[in-house]
Amino acid sequence: MRPHLIALAAIAAAGLVLAYAVRDAVVLDLVFTLLLYATLGQSWNWISGYGGNISFGHAIFFGCGAYTSALCVVHGISPWLAIPAGAAVAALLAAITGFPTLALRGHYFSIATIAVAAIVDALVRTQGWLGRANGFELPIAAGWASMQFADKGWYVVLALVLFVAVQCATLALERSRLGYYLRALRANHQAAASVGIDERRWKLIAFAWSAAMAACAGVLYAQYTLFVDPPSTIALSVSIDIALIGVVGGIGTLWGPAAGALVYVVLAKAVALKLGGTGKGYDLVIYGAIICVIAALRPHGIVGTIVDGIRRRRGAAAQPPARLAAEGAA
Amino acid sequence: MEALTTFAQLLAGGVLTGLVFALVAVGLTLVYGVMDVVNFAHGEFLMLAMYATLGLALIGLSPFAGLPLVAIALFLFGIVVYRVFIRRLLAGPPEATVFGTFGLLVLLQGLAQALFSSDFLSVPHPPLQGTLRFGGLAISQATLAEGAGALVLTAALFAFVEYTETGRAMRAVAEDRVAATLMGIDVQRVNGLAFGIGAACVGAAGALLMLSYPVFPTAGAPFALTAFVVVALGGFGSIQGALVGALLVGLLEVFGGFYLSPELKMVPVYLAYLAIVLVRPQGLLGRR
Known about the structure:
Structural class of chain A: mainly alpha
Helix content of chain B: over 70%
Number of helices of chain B: 11
Oligomer: heterodimer
Largest sheet of chain B: 2 strands, antiparallel
Largest interface: A-B, 52 and 48 residues
Distance between the termini of chain A: 8 Å
């Protein structure tokens, strides 16, 4: 536990220094995006990594936060209130959609999350009060009260706070009854059920937390870009980006989503900047190739592989089964 | 009378759309049935087939003449992808096949964008531009050819899996990999063939679709998304299930688009999926 807290403190310190010292808007933008996606990846990791229910619809919870934030601002309510409100809406949506679907196994659950997300997307696009396909442009009003800052460094600070909070929550999850039950359910749901673990109950709790954390990221995103519409928040492509970040880093691990977000931001975003915009497709070629290589050669993800390596060196077990090692990674 | 004509028109449109979905979906379900892999890059294989058909059309081959060539090319492409890539994914944890094939999706879309740009491209002077009229019904010849061609090819695949020695081997591997190995079936060869045939299905579908659709880097994605729903609805691994699911989805989409609004046309499809898997978690014709 201690090394993780030290690492977190180091990241927080480095982030604060960076937010204070760096004035390059492009760098700050990349760091903000990195922290935001690391948070989103971790929130996905709760239900899909630790819980083992791979979701391809996680963007709708991100969208809950972003839309709540936009609605608050448009109706003259403080965006700070959007954090609890958006999180509550997302948790409720997760509970409603999770109650029937979390009982589905494997790909049937994954396709169900696509179905739910597509229905939400289609409904948002037809509702006038949600801005239809056009979405919302948020009025500019700098200052703490309106959670808007001319200096991008403050956004990095807020994203850092959220990231550290979510990492601490995940650290707590790994040591909590919920965390142990989720891992037991993922390893063998029948065995877990036979010792009295109520699968639906615990997965619903994990799903609600997971959705609430994604919504917090959504609020921050809306206040950062000051623009919310379906393609940028709730679309399938956003859900898939979140899921890929989760698996590339290593699912069910504390640092996996952060590692995945680093790969994503450095390759998909920074390479795109270098190659002049996303129109050419070279960034996708590179990012796709990296995912393919990791999937084929390091299927437990970046962090899963490192954990395997550490175990092997320590000789904790003669032949640690890689899957268990990834699950037990702490 | 007019309402009846509209209904018949929608019915015909739904069935013909559904048949094309079926041809895309059977390739997906065959691969799933044999090796438990959902190929998320299936739609990108379709997109490649559409570009290949366009390329052949530009040197003077109509999509009909191009169809067998494109199907063979995709068959070989599928076998190579299996040998080089999918085989390695199968050695890893289950999620490796999920994100590995997603990586392939991103890679192929990026390649298409880099090579062919994001423009919508169509076959110049495609055949079958007329419209057939049956009483009050109007059906474009291209749509009819797409549906009929897809039906014939889906039936051919079904017959192949059901009645040939190789098809029997595939079903044996699908049922029990270890037992099949003990019976002397080369599982790697069967897997490779199944992956190749799955790709050949979208090869043929891509050639047919170029009769009336344009191609662009993400052209395959909506078809693949529908195919995932179709396959899950019918039951992963079931060819008959894919056909039934595809017809259902085709009808729901066409009727939904007409009676609700074009923006909401997929909502009935997804609602039907959720309703069906909640009652039958293994899909309509799937095994547990």
